[in-house]
Input
Amino acid sequence: MTVPAAEPEGPQARGPHPAPAGSEETYDLVVIGAGPAGLTAAVTAAELGLTVALVDSAARPGGQYDRHPAPALSAGRPPAPHHDRAPFTDLRRRLAASRTTTCLTENHIWSVVRESDGTWTAHAVTGADGTDGRPARTRGRALLLATGAHERHLPFPGWTLPGVVGAGGAQAMLSAGLVLPGRRVVVAGSGPLLLAVAASLAAAGARIPAVVEAAGYLRYARTPRTLAANPRKAAEALTYGATLLRHRVPLLPRSAVTRVHGTERVEAVTVTRLDRDWRPLPGTGRRITCDALAVGHGLVPQIELATAVGCATRTLADGTRGLALGAHQETSVPGLWAAGEAGGVGGAELARVEGEMAARAIAARLLGRRADPERTALLRRRRDRLRAFADAMAAAHAPGPGWTGWLTDDTDVCRCEEVTAGRVREAVTDLGARDPRTVKLLTRAGMGWCQGRMCGTAVACLTSRGAPAPPPPDRRLLAVPVPLSALAAGEPRGTGLPAVREGRESPGSPEPPATPLPQTAPLPPADPRPAGAPGPPEAPPARHPHRRSTA
Output
């Protein structure tokens, strides 16, 4: 299994960019994220006459979608190339030809700040994993967020065993590291990503006993016009289906992995049929032998940088939250645009369209000239068509409220702090918590290294007790973990970090308070229970020696 050496990045590419305070260059546009949306925006803006800084946490452009192996992994061909590799190849060619684009790689942006003169400063830490501790600042007259998305995980008994990986993580292991998560891999969860992952793993030589889809596909039939307007999406699904058929991979709709079996690693999984609300049907479980499980329940827009500066959001069809964007991709904060998954997960084609739309709008604003009306109208029609399909797809695969029936009380919900479903339920039923923030204060769920990105959805659903769960909080002062040395090197200047509210309310509105703790007297310092609650104070949960807490 081999791949070609990576294309050269071009003379404009640079590594970590530790610009000293007060002397950094000011670009016309700073683009954060070098995936399909960010790459398209950067090359389009440069071709329209802007100076551009393209900032990304990886060592090379491409994002999660266009991952490619390191040059040291020499080989003959990609194990499972994307069906639309040509657009990415064209973007890389245009990027290499640009003389006004600077690639700032291995820059992990933790905050963006609007300065008093209207410019934007992006604060970063540098290094392959952000632990070098060297602060970096990049300033621009306009800012475009193309930050992508991360996987949504719904816990189940055994999901912390070695051998359980995210569906997107399994694909990243294959495309970037040329390794398989196992030889016999069950692919499970919900969403179209499962078909792509299963097809890639099967083409690379893995045995796929089953693709387990929690949702059904009949919900797509509710939007026949949207389906008819997007024939390429149907062709893409047929391509994946043909690959799975060729490798004799069965597809199990309306089913879920409800338990993983094994001692030191995955040995088998239990697959159970689900009703329309994703409740497990008794007596339908069957055991499938495997040595790895690739599981994911869709993607969640990564919008922490935007919400920290007050950008308005909207609730998407699958219950996640994305940015509320204008006709030309501008957020509710002037001078800040977004493209791609930040406004709602829709795939690479939609991301490229939105990236070009945003770049043209920014160039028109900064250069004081009108954007090409014909091209703008064409892009808008494409965006609206693709966004309609994305919304239909999100609705079809939205998790049902009954999935919490998979969870036993001893199932870890927050892996970082080892908080079980039983402790979350106790906080709700016995201690009176009525919102995820109060559950967090009582149990530490969401206070670990991932800051609730992994467990936020699960905690919100358990807190709602079967009612529609609100999206977990998406406002964080720091978008990525930051060493104290980087914070001490320079305090961000500008307008500060106002609270964020959903919809079009004022970004400066105060944050709603957490649910008051049900108590009749002040809480003892060592006891998170209300005064008078039965039982002795609960000891802190045991911590894994390699887990870190940022609380």
Remarks:
- The radius of gyration is 23 Å.
- The chain has a mean pLDDT of 82.
- Residues 373-396 form the longest helix (24 residues).
- The chain has 13 helices and 22 strands.
